[in-house]
Amino acid sequence: MATRGGKRNYPNRPLVGVGAVVFKHERLLLVKRKFEPKSNYWTLPGGLVKLGENAREALVREVKEECGIEVVPVRLVDVVDYIEKDARENIKYHYVLIDFETEFKAGTLTPASDILDARWFDKSDLADLALPEITEKFLKKHYFSS
What we know:
Number of strands: 7
Structural class: alpha+beta
Helix content: 10-25%
Radius of gyration: 15 Å
CATH superfamily: Nucleoside Triphosphate Pyrophosphohydrolase
Number of helices: 2
CATH topology: Nucleoside Triphosphate Pyrophosphohydrolase
Shape: globular
CATH class: Alpha Beta
């Protein structure tokens, strides 16, 4: 089944997405996904890069669309692959995710209709959240290793 804006599952090539690491007063912004993959899980805000758009432009646009805030990309943190197979070993999802650290610029956090929620979290809150394994590993590797 295809979801919003085109076929994202069982793609014929990897899809390129961006993710934003946004801190405000030492609290991390996470969004609760509404759609698969990983619906009802907390992840970094972000989304797919559109044709003709560079990764930084996509990041700024996606954070504004999903969360109602403005950010400035500061540095590339990592590029990770998310590949999920179905029971028959067919590739169900394949994303190449470009994750940037950003600086909060302006705005009031306002979750959009394509996500379930958006909130700022303290480091101590993360252990109690439903995080996809890829998000948990990313955060531990780059931000919360101790």
